[in-house]
Design goal:
mainly alpha; 6 helices; 69% helix
Length: 139
């Protein structure tokens, strides 16, 4: 089934609005990429010794090592969340290109403009999002 054709004449956005949405999506992507580069620079490019500030050749305390490991793992989890947001924004841009942005992937209805304003990468209307979350939590 051709998703673009299925969308029909019910486009909820004007060309001008779609252009503004695209610009917002690209701006959000740039911000996420900047944050990912910052996380990489602060966390991944430093050795444990550099991160701890220990310049001596001696091994450092196990508690310090555990704290450093925790901080590094926390930063990596943040980066993973940012990466997922980046993929969602890419998907939203693809839906814009396909002419189906703002259409619920599950029921075919429209995602409200208010929801898209807050979360421009939303793929589901509120009802379908709730169903999706319930099914994920039930597993």
């Amino acid at each position: 089934m051709d998703r673009k054709k299925e969308y029909g004449k019910n486009k909820p956005f004007t060309k001008k609005a779609l252009k503004a949405i695209r610009e917002e999506l690209i701006k959000r992507k740039a911000k996420i990429l900047e944050e990912l580069l910052s996380i990489k620079g602060e966390t991944l490019n430093k050795s444990f010794k550099d991160a701890s500030g220990d310049l001596s050749g001696y091994s450092f305390h196990m508690a310090d090592m555990a704290t450093d490991l925790y901080d590094r793992e926390f930063s990596l989890e943040l980066a993973e969340g940012e990466r997922e947001r980046l993929f969602a924004l890419d998907d939203a841009i693809k839906r814009l290109d396909d002419g189906i942005y703002g259409k619920c992937d599950q029921c075919g209805g429209f995602v409200t403009k208010q929801r898209l304003k807050v979360m421009p990468q939303a793929k589901y209307c509120i009802k379908c999002q709730e169903k999706e979350e319930k099914s994920e939590n039930g597993k």
